[in-house]
Design goal:
The protein is an alpha+beta fold and 522 residues long. It has one domain (123-521): Cytochrome p450, CATH 1.10.630. The chain has helices at residues 2-41, 64-77, 99-106, 122-125, 134-144, 150-155, 157-172, 183-199, 212-228, 236-239, 243-275, 295-301, 312-325, 328-343, 345-359, 368-373, 375-387, 419-422, 442-445, 466-481, 516-521, and strands at 84-88, 91-96, 180-181, 394-397, 402-404, 407-409, 414-417, 484-487, 497-499, 503-505, 510-515. A four-stranded mixed sheet has the order 1-2-7-4. A three-stranded antiparallel sheet has the order 3-11-8. Strand 5 and strand 6 form a beta hairpin. The chain is globular, with a radius of gyration of 26 Å.
């Protein structure tokens, strides 16, 4: 009996030794690379305290506001430093917040890859334009760029005008009443616009905000951001077993099911049109159909240099990407613009003066020619994006060993660019906390480092939809301001900034509306 027990013990010990040896062998490359990066990056100033393996993770809290405000606090305290480092668990990040430091990263084809945290977007967005790299990104960017042609964008103007009017009608009910939180109202308007322009599908978000699809969009964004900054949630095999992982998968099914149904419906319609002999192969600028064109229609007709069409998976990646990127960011910019105009009546008066010059007493829809003439409103939006950039930070991966501002940086390190801090560099924006739209008059921008202001990123991977975004923001804001005078009593320190996938106010944007004509005539 004793001999049998000894044999069993020997078997268990042997198994344990084999398991530990295998684990050590599998971890050796990781640990070797981790130690190499730790050693090389040691001279770079960074957050403190920093512990092996867990890095600065204990300093992060689940609340996105805490994480973002921690970054802001450090960049303000150490603005004299060219850069900083932070370890998110075992993954190192460089924090960049100076134009001269950002430019070498964005203005090159060497460091085009998105950073590690973007991988958590892959289940939803696949490897579309936002998340893809290398040849796939180059090919996809080249194929999709024509869909943002000026003539195509002009087709979307009708949708923007219609949805803006829906928003104004909702606002009329609140005119001359107590302050209300307008943040979600504006966001749902932006969601209606992107849904109809991206997919050709009305989802009536402004009148039915309780749909499963709408809830899934916002829930998925929250889930992804939470996972991005918590290394213990990174392993897929563990995450899928957790309650949060199961909620992630449930929302993912809702999002993909909706997109799938829209793509299939539109593909069937187009096939029917082809079978009936309708020509859909002409120039994009001359596409004329009873149904409005949408980005989806362009994608279904797009081919690469070899004449190959996008497959079904490719199309879904891009449609989901448009939906994800194309509403929260523009909605945030419009909300911040309303807040700043409500806080600065002198700037709002200038906007109203411009609106009178362009539209007079007319209630007509906004035209492309009008957009060109709304120069002061455009400066207001750009200044709002300087103070409150819709995307508070974005990240790249260093693809080869390099030197940044005198510090050695090893391949594989992630770079976190913080526009919120970058846009507050007093060298380029004196008294940076002041709201001054005139900073974006042509004479003021001449000679300014183009990497000092990058709300849409910069370089080869700049935002492909920035013209669309600015166009939408001008249409919606001008439509609102042609009807109302905006007031707010919210102070900056009452906003409670939360930097997650977008920069939003924890407490919302609270405004009061007055009849514009009556107010200005008093």
């Amino acid at each position: 009996m004793a001999l049998s027990e000894d044999v069993h013990l020997l078997v268990w010990l042997s198994a344990a030794i084999i398991l530990l040896t295998s684990l050590a062998i599998s971890l050796t490359p990781f640990l070797t690379e981790y130690i190499r990066k730790w050693r090389i990056m040691k001279p770079i100033p960074g957050f403190s305290p920093t512990y092996p393996i867990i890095g600065n993770a204990l300093q992060f809290k689940p609340n996105g506001g805490d994480f973002f405000l921690g970054l802001v606090e450090h960049t303000e305290a150490f603005r004299h430093l060219p850069l900083m480092k932070i370890w998110v668990g075992p993954v190192p990040f460089l924090i960049l917040y100076h134009a001269e430091t950002v430019e070498p990263i964005l203005n090159t084809s060497k460091h085009m890859d998105k950073a590690y945290p973007y991988k958590f977007l892959h289940p939803w967005l696949g490897t579309g334009l936002l998340t893809s790299t290398g040849k796939k990104w180059h090919s996809r960017r080249k194929m999709i760029t024509p869909t943002f042609h000026f003539a195509i964008l002009s087709e979307f103007l009708e949708v923007m005008n219609e949805q803006s009017k829906v928003l104004v009608e909702k606002f009329k009910v609140k005119m001359d009443k107590e302050a209300f939180n307008c943040f979600m109202d504006v966001t749902l308007c932006a969601l209606d616009i992107i849904s109809e322009t991206a997919m050709g599908k009305k989802i009536y978000a402004q009148s039915n905000s309780n749909s499963d699809y709408i809830h899934a969009i916002y829930k998925m964004s929250d889930i992804i951001h939470r996972r991005q900054k918590m290394p213990w949630l990174w392993p897929d095999f563990l995450y899928s077993k957790l309650k949060e992982g199961k909620e992630h998968d449930r929302n993912l099914r809702i999002l993909h099911s909706f997109t799938d149904s829209v793509i299939q419906e539109r593909a069937r319609e187009m096939e029917t049109q082809r079978s009936q002999g309708q020509d859909l192969t002409g120039e994009l600028e001359t596409i004329q159909r009873k149904k409005r064109s949408a980005f989806l229609d362009m994608l279904l007709n797009t081919t690469d240099e070899s004449g190959n069409a996008l497959n079904y998976q490719d199309i879904r990646e891009e449609v989901d990407t448009f939906m994800f990127e194309g509403h929260d960011t523009t909605a945030a910019a419009m909300n911040w613009s309303l807040y700043l105009l409500g806080s600065h009546p002198e700037a709002q008066l200038e906007v109203h003066k411009e609106l009178d010059e362009v539209f007079g007493e007319s209630d007509r829809p906004v035209t492309m020619e009008d957009l060109k003439n709304l120069r002061y409103l455009e400066a207001v939006i750009k200044e709002a994006l300087r103070l409150f950039p819709s995307v508070p930070f974005y990240a790249r991966t260093i693809c080869e060993d390099c030197i940044i501002r005198g510090f050695k940086v090893p391949k594989g390190v992630n770079v976190l660019i913080v526009p919120y801090a970058l846009h507050r560099d007093p060298e380029y924006f004196p008294e940076p906390e002041e709201f001054r739209p005139e900073r974006f008059f042509p004479e003021a921008t001449n000679g300014r480092n183009p990497y000092a202001y990058i709300p849409f990123s910069a370089g080869l991977r700049n935002c492909i939809g920035q013209r669309f975004a600015l166009m939408e923001e001008k249409v919606v804001l001008s439509t609102i301001l042609r009807k109302f005078w905006i007031e707010t009593n919210q102070k900056r320190d009452e906003l409670g900034l939360v930097g997650e996938l977008i920069l939003r106010p924890q407490e919302g944007i609270w405004i009061q509306l007055k009849d514009r004509r009556q107010f200005l005539s008093e």
